[in-house]
Design goal:
two-stranded antiparallel ribbon, globular, mainly alpha, 314 residues
Length: 314
């Protein structure tokens, strides 16, 4: 019984155990510099924007769908935030999130209403959104205003020693955990991912729930893009170029089944942290090419999918 319980614990918290192992390895390799408050703070700030987007993507993957357009939505909202930054934070948030809402709606209509395969639908919108981001300032970056005011605080602020983006990420993660575990909506998402036909027979409004999923993913990705514009004090049309793959990699590494129906929001948080630690380890080595980050992430993603397939086949 004890061995069975131990296996269950290892399976349940495998992503967090992997994260702990990475932290110990990195701390040993960098002689404790990794565990310094400054380094940890910077690491968490850097991954928080991607993490916000990954929460929305995790819900979509649990429902058996995909969203490859999160990077494009972040880029569009980053550029809009820079354009509106001189009008104050409320206008920035309203304009940026309104655009994010519209892009999420389009994704939802394509997938939920028109029944287009999520991979194809969001691949198409990803290309379109990235094109829009490039058009918004003729493919050039755009300097933002109010870099030291409320807009700048959004990405660079600190509250009680904690970077403000980290606080936002943590609050969204907590909300995601509560929704997934303790609401009818969360249970419906799992039901759809487990067997969509059965969910329809149970009376679950599949189309409406998918629409909401894509709208929420758009809003979270848009918020991440706005916060990056605030942090860098500029709108950059290539913002989020790798988010499309990194968010899916993070949720899969966190234990979410790529076929849907199983997964945890806390696992996605662990997956994003794993990505951040790997990136930080490579940066601290100094003489190692940053391209190794992509190679390592790709190998980890492949390993996670292979493990999932092995578990399913047993």
């Amino acid at each position: 019984m004890k061995s069975i319980k131990a296996k269950q614990i290892i399976s349940e918290y495998s992503s967090w155990l992997a994260l702990l192992a990475l932290i110990l390895v990195s701390a040993g390799m960098n002689r404790g510099d990794f565990l310094s408050f400054t380094n940890i703070s910077n690491l968490l700030r850097q991954i928080s924007m991607l993490g916000i987007s990954a929460i929305g993507v995790n819900f979509i993957v649990i429902a058996g769908c995909k969203d490859l357009s999160v990077g494009g939505m972040a880029a569009v909202c980053s550029m809009i935030a820079a354009h509106l930054s001189g009008f104050g934070l409320p206008v920035v948030l309203f304009g940026g999130l309104l655009a994010a809402f519209a892009m999420g709606c389009l994704n939802g209509v394509l997938v939920a209403k028109l029944k287009i395969m999520p991979f194809i639908a969001t691949l198409g919108t990803m290309i379109a959104y990235k094109g829009i981001a490039l058009l918004l300032n003729d493919s050039k970056s755009l300097a933002a205003q109010d870099g030291d005011g409320p807009f700048g605080f959004l990405g660079k602020g600190i509250v009680l020693g904690i970077p403000f983006p980290v606080i936002v990420f943590a609050l969204i993660a907590v909300c995601g955990i509560l929704v997934s575990k303790h609401t009818r909506y969360g249970r419906a998402v799992y039901a759809i991912g487990g067997n969509e036909e059965s969910a329809v027979m149970m009376g679950i409004p599949v189309e409406r729930i998918k629409m909401i999923l894509y709208i929420v993913s758009g809003l979270l990705s848009g918020l991440g893009g706005i916060m990056i514009a605030s942090r860098l004090n500029a709108g950059i049309p290539t913002t989020g170029d790798s988010w499309d793959m990194y968010t899916i990699a993070a949720v899969v590494m966190g234990g979410t089944m790529i076929r849907g129906g199983e997964g945890k929001i806390s696992g996605a948080v662990a997956g994003v942290l794993i990505w951040g630690v790997i990136q930080n380890m490579i940066n601290m080595m100094g003489d190692v090419s940053s391209y190794w980050q992509q190679i390592i992430m790709g190998l980890i993603l492949l390993a996670a999918v292979i493990i999932q397939n092995t578990v399913e086949s047993k």
